[in-house]
Amino acid sequence: MNQSTLQPLLVALLFLSSLLTSTAIERQKHRERSLFGAPKTTVSILNALPEDLDLTVHCKSGDDDLGEKILQFNGTYEWSFHVNFGVTTLFFCSFSWRNAAGSFEIYKAKRDMNWRCPTYCSWAARDDGVYGYKESDHVNDIHFPWP
């Protein structure tokens, strides 16, 4: 092959190589978005106990200890996170107030991620227990009574 025949062939190979590389990069970006690009989830806890009663809340996951928070009447505590790759994210919280105490699973990815509260999980502590709110149906769907 002479040089005049090789030059168009090399240009075509270079173009094809560039096209394949950019397609592979776009595929990889899409794969990363679908695996790790889930939106953040926010959990909110409201002190809906009778007036003048403080609520002490201490939330943890296997990786994070969020510390103890004291919520005054009608006060809220919120935090946000991404569900882990294995969909095993779990936050449990201990609650205590003058008349009761208890520890409950407040966010469980397998229960909450798709149907209960995919982006915003709302909980309210009341005098008869802790209530979880289901976003899609606009109802309290979980009730953990005080032990």
Radius of gyration: 25 Å
What general form does the structure show?
Answer: elongated
Number of helices: 2
**Quaternary status:** single chain
The overall number of domains is 1
Q: Helical amount among residues, as a percent range?
A: 25-40%
Series of H and E elements: HEEEEEEHEEE
Distance between the amino and carboxyl termini: 86 Å
What structural class results from the helix and strand content? Answer: alpha+beta
CATH class: Mainly Beta
CATH topological fold name:
Immunoglobulin-like
The CATH architecture classification is Sandwich
Average pLDDT value? 85
Number of strands: 9
Folded structure, characterized:
This protein has helices at about 5-35, 110; strands at about 40-45, 55-60, 65-70, 75-80, 90-95, 100-110, 120-125, 130-135, 140-145. The chain has a single domain (about 40-145), classed as Sandwich (Immunoglobulin-like). The protein has about 150 residues and is an alpha+beta fold. A hairpin with a 4-residue loop joins strand 8 and strand 9. A five-stranded mixed beta sheet has the order 4-1-7-8-9, with no helix packed on it. It contains two helices and nine strands. The protein is about 25% helix and about 45% strand. The termini are far apart. The longest helix has about 35 residues, at about 5-35.
Walk me through the topology.
Blueprint: H1 3-36, E1 41-47, E2 55-60, E3 65-71, E4 76-81, E5 90-97, E6 100-108, H2 109-112, E7 120-126, E8 129-134, E9 139-145
Parallel strand pairs: 1-7
Antiparallel strand pairs: 1-4, 2-3, 2-5, 5-6, 7-8, 8-9
